From TrEMBL:
Gene that specifies this protein: pgsA
Disordered: annotated span: 1-85
Membrane topology: Multi-pass membrane protein
Ranges of Gly residues composition bias in the record: 44-59
Compositional bias ranges of the Low complexity kind: 1-32
Gene Ontology MF: a single term: CDP-diacylglycerol-glycerol-3-phosphate 3-phosphatidyltransferase activity
Domain of life where this protein originates: Bacteria
Name of the protein this chain belongs to: CDP-diacylglycerol--glycerol-3-phosphate 3-phosphatidyltransferase
Gene3D superfamilies listed in its UniProt record: 1.20.120.1760
Length: 294
């Protein structure tokens, strides 16, 4: 005895049954087989999709439309927001709290080390009157370690998501502290003119103050010129810390001259960026006020 073939001529091949019966012992028709292939059950009218109540939602909160069901999408934080587009209230805040890096991470430890090296550098620099070549070499080693850690702590914090509020505050303080201590020691010993120390430190303090003044309009990003200035300053000051003579002493003078030029040029560039940023911020606020009044 042979089964009755499904009459699904012209339908999709995946919706056919070569030999089978529908529930209840009736021969399987094309409509029944196609409905089973789509995962729907006969509704009250005999061919409608399965419904749960009158809301039109299938299992797991999926909305049904016609014969196709669109599953609800989970939010980014793994919490179903109901409509599949919005995360649950407070989910982002909770995720940020979980992802907050510990204060005792490698980047902050390097920053703390740099802060501790400041008084150590000053003591080594001024030991035996400040002119002993051996003590100056130890002071140079402390200064070099501080500058190297300055290169690594920021990179580690950004690469491995170790940015903390402590690091944001302590890192620039440590940078300016070691550089300021070196410049003041050199000028007090007569190795470096006071006007050079005044130009470099005045620029650093001025740019920091400028950032705070325009922070309501935006953040002034660090430029390539600023990074080159920092590198040149570190090399020049390091050469002055060492008790160099001959052509090396002449070379360090030219390196310091280049550092001073970059210091002034990048400082003027920051002033220009601050002016442009402030004008853009004021223009955007005025445009927003006009839109609200209109």
């Amino acid at each position: 005895m042979t089964g009755v073939p499904a009459s699904a001529a012209g339908g999709p091949s995946g919706a056919r049954r070569t030999a089978g019966t529908a529930p209840g012992g009736m021969p399987a028709t094309g409509r029944t087989v196609a409905r089973e292939a789509r995962g729907t059950a006969p509704g009250p009218s005999g061919g409608g999709p399965a419904r749960r109540g009158a809301s039109g939602r299938g299992p797991a909160g999926a909305r049904t439309h016609g014969d196709e069901a669109a599953p609800a999408t989970a939010s980014r934080d793994g919490v179903d927001a109901g409509d599949g587009t919005r995360p649950a209230r407070g989910a982002k805040i909770a995720a940020a709290a979980v992802n907050q890096a510990s204060v005792w991470n490698i980047a902050n430890l390097l920053t703390m080390l740099r802060l501790l090296l400041v008084p150590a550098f000053v003591m080594l620099m001024l030991a035996e009157g400040g002119y002993d070549p051996a003590w100056r070499s130890f002071a140079w080693a402390a200064f070099a370690i501080a500058m190297i850690t300055d290169l690594f702590d920021g990179h580690l914090a950004r690469t491995y998501d170790l940015v903390t509020d402590f690091g944001k505050i302590a890192d620039p303080i440590a940078d300016k502290a070691i550089m300021g201590a070196a410049l003041i020691c050199l000028s007090s010993l007569g190795d470096l003119p006071w006007w050079v120390t005044g130009v470099i430190l005045g620029r650093e303090l001025g740019v920091t103050l400028l950032r705070f003044l325009v922070i309501r309009y935006g953040v002034i990003p660090a430029s390539r010129g600023g990074k080159l200035k920092t590198l040149t300053q570190g090399i020049a000051v390091g050469m002055y810390v060492l008790a160099l003579t001959g052509w090396l002493a002449t070379l360090r003078w030219w390196v310091m001259a280049a550092a001073v030029v970059l210091t002034v040029a990048t400082g003027l560039d920051y002033v220009k960026q601050a002016i442009v940023l402030r004008r853009q911020g004021i223009a955007e606020r005025e445009a927003a006020l006009e839109e609200t009044e209109a």
